[in-house]
């Protein structure tokens, strides 16, 4: 990813930028069209304005997180790897399945499901065994929870 694309991605996901923009818009609307009551609650002193600005940044952070989580659901409708053949699959094919995930677009690879599945398949590929898959899934879950 180039620096410009990386900067644009950061800019689009920055709650500070969106929160300040939302606050400026809200502040202007209240000053122009709000009555005396709204002005006294939101714009009268610097404390009111600052509180409203911080609230706007917090709401922007929640909205960005919510949109990100909603975007995760799109990957559930798409197959990430080939269907499992009848009778199961040998552990030697785990590396092939990892390659299938790596061929997906970057946005799909960054989803929670694709990242966890890839980590699990890499574990199976390295250990050449699927015996401790449940404990590995649990440790991946704990790592995601900590993140």
Tell me what the structure shows:
This protein has 147 residues and is mainly alpha-helical. It is built from eight helices and no strands. It has helices spanning 3-12, 15-33, 36-42, 46-72, 94-102, 106-109, 112-127, 133-146. Helix 2 packs across helix 4 and helix 5 packs antiparallel against helix 7 (112-127). The radius of gyration is 23 Å and the shape is elongated. The mean pLDDT is 87.
Could you outline the blueprint of secondary structure elements for this entry?
Blueprint: H1 3-12, H2 15-33, H3 36-42, H4 46-72, H5 94-102, H6 106-109, H7 112-127, H8 133-146
What characteristics describe this protein?
mainly alpha, 147 residues, 72% helix
Shape: elongated
What percent strand? under 5%
DSSP strand tally:
0
Order of helices and strands: HHHHHHHH
Number of helices: 8
Mean pLDDT: 87
Unreliable runs: none
Structural class: mainly alpha
Portion of residues within helices: over 70%
Q: Measured on Cα atoms, how large is the radius of gyration?
A: 23 Å
How far apart are the first and last residues' alpha carbons, in Å? 23 Å
Largest sheet: none
Structure, briefly:
The chain has 147 residues and is mainly α. It is built from eight helices and no strands. 72% of the residues lie in helices and 0% in strands.
């Amino acid at each position: 990813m180039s620096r410009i694309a990386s900067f644009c991605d950061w800019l689009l996901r920055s709650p500070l930028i969106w929160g300040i923009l939302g606050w400026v818009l809200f502040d202007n609307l209240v000053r122009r069209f709000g009555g005396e009551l709204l002005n006294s609650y939101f714009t009268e002193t610097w404390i009111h304005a600052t509180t409203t600005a911080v609230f706007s940044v917090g709401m922007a952070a929640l909205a960005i997180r919510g949109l990100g989580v909603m975007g995760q659901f799109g990957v559930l409708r798409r197959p990430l790897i080939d269907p499992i053949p009848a009778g199961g699959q040998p552990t030697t094919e785990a590396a092939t399945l990892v390659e299938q995930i790596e061929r997906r677009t970057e946005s799909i690879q960054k989803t929670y499901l694709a990242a966890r599945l890839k980590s699990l398949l890499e574990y199976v590929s390295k250990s050449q065994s699927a015996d401790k898959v449940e404990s590995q899934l649990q440790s991946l879950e704990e790592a995601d929870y900590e993140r």
